[in-house]
Amino acid sequence: MRALIVDDEKHVRSAIRLLADWPSFGVTSLEEAEDGETAVRLIPGLQPDLVFTDMLMPGMGGTGLLEWIKTHSPRTKVIVISGHDDFELVRTTVKYGGLDYLLKPIDPAELGEAIQKAVDSCRLEAETERRLQEQHMEVNQIKPVYWERMLSNLLDDTSYYGKLKDSLIRDLGYSPEIQECRVGVIGLADIPPVIRRKFASGTDLLYFSLLNICNEYLGRDKTGYAFRHGDGTGTIVLLIWRHTANAGELVRRIASGIRQTLGGSFDMGLSGTAPFPLGTANAYRDAIHALRSRNLLVRSGWIHETQTAQEPPFRPLPFREYEEELRLAVQSAHEGQVEAAAGKLFGDIRRWDRITVDHLELWKQEFALFQARWVMDGTEVPEPAVPLEADGCLSLSVWEQRITEQLLKLADLHTRQLREDRHIIYEIAHYLREHAEEEISLQDIADRFYLSREYISRKFKQAFKENLSDYIARIRIEKSKLLLLNPDYRLSRIALQVGYQDEKYFSKVFKKLTGLSPGEYRRKAGGDDGS
């Protein structure tokens, strides 16, 4: 591992040399430069893993050096050592990828920690690169994983093109003269039932089959490459860089091949033409939009291309205006009321001439919020699946049926929750009556019954119209009334027996709840004061 110290003050460079145990960090070469220009001349030959730099130097300062390193030697780790505690300098360090910002005079411990962090980062990157190289050697098994990761990165950051260019030419038949591309996508959010049954054991084999079919067509004349996007959505991306004018027909042939091989069809989105590589991200978004904005009420083909004409304005499903009626119907637990409320909602939906995937996503969000507002905390209720016909169109009748069934399940769940709430709260009340003389806190009750303090407090108040402390006090005073009937019991003994260490405080609580002092109550009951 090699390091370079850049500072216009020689004594600072010497101090950095002396303050670290370089061999222990694996540093075998330690060079110096007195300014940024000298460092820029040295770095290509030295190829240092670590650079330590001051920020304010004659000529090229630390800011210029950081920017140069980020562009020309991005693997080099930079640690700034400066005499200025300046926010802008720190922000610049972060902006250009500096790992740490240390202040002069240099603290040996802080320097050691910064070096260790940089060394760990270098080793982690080296290990990652080594693993990628090993994967590259396993061509048949690992290349799809490699391309999935690299091309997914290209969709997010076009700077990856520089790293991928040679591999694209060598492995995928890309030509650097190509200036444009189109992007197709296959969404697997709704797998056709016939295909779902065929691949019931798992989706990995389905992905493998789809990618093989797509790349069989795309690879015939090195037209492009298909891969699974690494963002977790499960989207299959078709990156097409050759014969883009005929991309629509190519994607239709791919769709036909999928249908013939797997026995079912998938909706596919296709972007317009975009510059390559700079336009790949926009092309991907256009293809996703074309797929998600398709009308689920009609079938106009399986390939959905980006439309140049203005689309109809987006309108949310009419859910919120029916939310209160749906909530009351669920709480009524009456099947007829639930069916009527759902019927009104879907009566409005049926007047629509267009429903898209975005509409359905908003529906899911609103329905989830609807449940969360009044279903018990922590209770999970699965969302009802949106039903599609064999041709991929939305079945409103089946959807209404599923939503109605879901609302009835919620009604049943809500009823059971009410019963459970009542049962557990009465268990708590029974426990308090049995142990009223003990010092019991709300947290003690929460720990004993495995409920939150807030939940117990809220539900207890709803059930008994008083909080726990008032309930305990009332039980204690009721017990003390019985004991006061025995004239041989002193007030101090009664106070202790019902849970009060202080006789005066006991008397105060007793009078507050009964309107009489303990002595007055005893005399009125026919006993003796006994105090």
Describe this structure in words.
It comes from Paenibacillus mesotrionivorans. This is Response regulator. The protein has 531 residues and is α/β, with parallel strands linked by helices. It has 4 domains: 2-131, 3-Layer(aba) Sandwich (Rossmann fold), CATH 3.40.50.2300; 138-305, 2-Layer Sandwich (Alpha-Beta Plaits), CATH 3.30.70; 320-418, no CATH class; 435-524, Orthogonal Bundle (Arc Repressor Mutant, subunit A), CATH 1.10.10. 56% of the residues lie in helices and 9% in strands. It is built from 21 helices and 11 strands. The protein has helices spanning 10-19, 36-46, 62-72, 87-95, 108-137, 139-156, 161-172, 193-198, 204-218, 247-262, 280-292, 320-332, 335-349, 357-372, 396-434, 442-449, 453-464, 468-484, 491-498, 503-514, 518-524, and strands spanning 2-6, 29-33, 50-53, 77-82, 100-103, 180-186, 224-228, 236-240, 268-270, 274-275, 303-305. The strands form 2 sheets. Strands 6, 7, 8, 9, 10 and 11 form a 6-stranded mixed beta sheet that branches. Strands 2-1-3-4-5 form a 5-stranded parallel beta sheet, sandwiched between helices. Helix 4 links the parallel strand 4 and strand 5. Helix 12 crosses helix 15 (396-434) and helix 13 packs across helix 15. It is flat, with a radius of gyration of 37 Å. The N and C termini lie far apart (88 Å).
Annotated CATH architecture of the largest domain: 2-Layer Sandwich
**The first-level CATH class name of the largest domain:** Alpha Beta
CATH fold name of the largest domain, please?
Alpha-Beta Plaits
Q: Report the span from N to C terminus.
A: 88 Å
Shape: flat
Strand proportion, as a percent range, falls in 5-15%
* Tally of domains: 4
Largest sheet: 6 strands, mixed
Radius of gyration using CA atoms only: 37 Å
> What structural class should be given to the helix and strand makeup?
alpha/beta
Assembly form of the protein? single chain
Number of helices: 21
